[in-house]
Design goal:
By secondary structure, the protein is mainly alpha-helical. Helices cover 72% and strands 5% of the residues.
Amino acid sequence: MIESIKRLIELAGEDEQIRKLEARHASIPAKLQEMEQKSETLRQELTENEQRLQECRTRKSQLEKEVEEIRSNISKSNSKRSKIKTNREYWAMMKEVEDLKVLLKTKEDEIIAAMEELEGIEKTCDSLRHNIESVLKESEGEAQQLKGELKEAETDLERHRTVRLDIVAPIDEDLLYQYNRLLKVRGGEAIAGVRDGVCMACNMMIPPQQYNELQRSDRLMKCPHCQRIIYWLDHKELQDYIPQQFVRAEEE
């Protein structure tokens, strides 16, 4: 039975490596997508600001035309003075000129505001273009590295899965079925070592009688609490197989 335990410990080690590699393999496309999304967000923001820039330029151009038209109307009104014959006509003309001057001032202020807005948007666009260039330059190297890691993870996964097949080949079908079922329902941890009567997976004490039987290692047993397959961590024949974190530190 000790040979079955050795196989299960080896299998658990491979499954742990496979699980880590699968997680790493799955995370890389998400990172690549996140990098692309970052640059796409900046591009979208640049497009929106360039559209605002064009709208602002169009508005400024329209205001400049309106200002020229108002100035032309003021000039025309002033040229009519020599033809005015009554005070009523004079004051009406003066009122018209004053109203045009007020409108002119308003339009000129709007042009100044538009110019300030244009300057701000242009600075924003320049900054965004710089950021996009920096992000693309940075992400290009990072993307190549991630793609390399992805290929490496795929190679490692294939290798560990091949090793796993060799390990499971001699394992009894019923035992392998139990192991695989526990692997799913116990968060990827199907077996657990026991030391000093404590299950290292669930940290619960197993009954003394069961612990005594476990130390004999003549049959497979399960933890009465978490139902994982258990083994005695301090069995001499298992010392070369148990996970490193459970190896006892040498006494000084």
